[in-house]
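Before a colleague's protein record goes any further, I have to sign it off. I want your independent view on whether this chain really folds as the tokens say. The record follows directly below this note.
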Amino acid sequence: MKFLLLQLKEAFAFATQSLVVNKLRTVLSLFGVTIGIFSIIFVLSIVDSMEADMKEGLSVMGSDLLFIQKWPMGPEKDGGEYEWWNYWQRRQPSKEDLNLLKADLKSFSVATIQVRASKTVEHENNSLEGVGFLGVGYDYIQAIDLKIEKGRYFSQMECDGGRPVALIGYSLAEQLFGAEYPVGQDIKIQGQKAEVIGVMAKEGSSLFGGERDLSVYVPYEYAQRFASDVDDVTLLIKAKKDVDVDVLKGDVMSVFRGIRGIRPTEDNDFSVIDSSMISDMVNSIVGVFNVAGMFIGIFAILVGAFSIANIMFVSVKERTNIIGIQKALGAKRYFILSQFLFESILLCLVGGIMGLLLVWGVLSLLNSVTEFHFFLPFSRIMLGITVSLVVGIVAGFIPALRAANLKPVDAIRSAG
């Protein structure tokens, strides 16, 4: 056993020496593997970052929340088309619908309303167009996790009376007020004055929920002043602690069909969306990106593997004389095989590590120029190293086997 280990150590030394001597060839070989590992790990890391961001954004809603709205997330019938022309004819949910739902529904803990639009917001000489405008009920903060950094949330009296008060996002406060303290000051929303009573904590760039930094929240009754151009109303229903969300969904469907006067044979004229539907959508998006990433990465890795295999065949050709001498002196087949296999594996591992370092560098650069958080998961690091190891074995095995099967006399004559 000790003798075998010594021979393997010597084979590894031969492989390392060959890589050091042939610097240009080594660099060119590393380049192919580096690009391959970079391609697959970079794409998968981007997908992992997107998935983590989307799940974090969805976490503010919880898994026990339902949304009743006019538009569905996709076709309401499996395999069907997205019949937008039918959905467009539906009427929006209303405050009256919400009150009737609360009166008949027993399995909810919170039921509130949200209207959404896009408005121009001003403060003195500063003005921003296309700001997210949301009119919400008093119970909204119990359904959606809003983190308030300065000031406070709306009171029951302010919501019921439709008082002109506003809760603004972190970035909106910065752009409108600069270094000034915004709480207590006035803004204009589409020309209508409102007092800022709170500023939300910074969320940063996000695929879900990041728009809050550039949003303004007002009481629902106050938002009715802008009702003429608001066409996005949602009812939010949160389940009781001991009620399963599927049970709540069934109850909501039944009660709301009754409120709308829908006959048993008629289709719904509303959509009920739960967090699992949103998660499924997120998972499908992530799945598409993962497949695309794997396809790009596998193609790049194949190119790198062929590059390594070609270089190894060249290496065997150049060292045929040395192989012949080693075998003439009694070197075993596994000793010759391990030389070239170690060389191939070492090439791929070094190339893979360089690719991982390149991924880390590019992700760090992206983090420095964007607010979105990109990261390189440990699982992807291990995947990169594993792929490099496998490619090294696969790409180097045939050249190594060819070298190991050379006959001493033929190898020496061929080199001569």
Observations:
- The chain has a mean pLDDT of 81.
- The CA atoms of residues 64 and 245 lie 5 Å apart.
- Residues 275-318 form the longest helix (44 residues).
- Residues 2-57+281-415 form one domain.
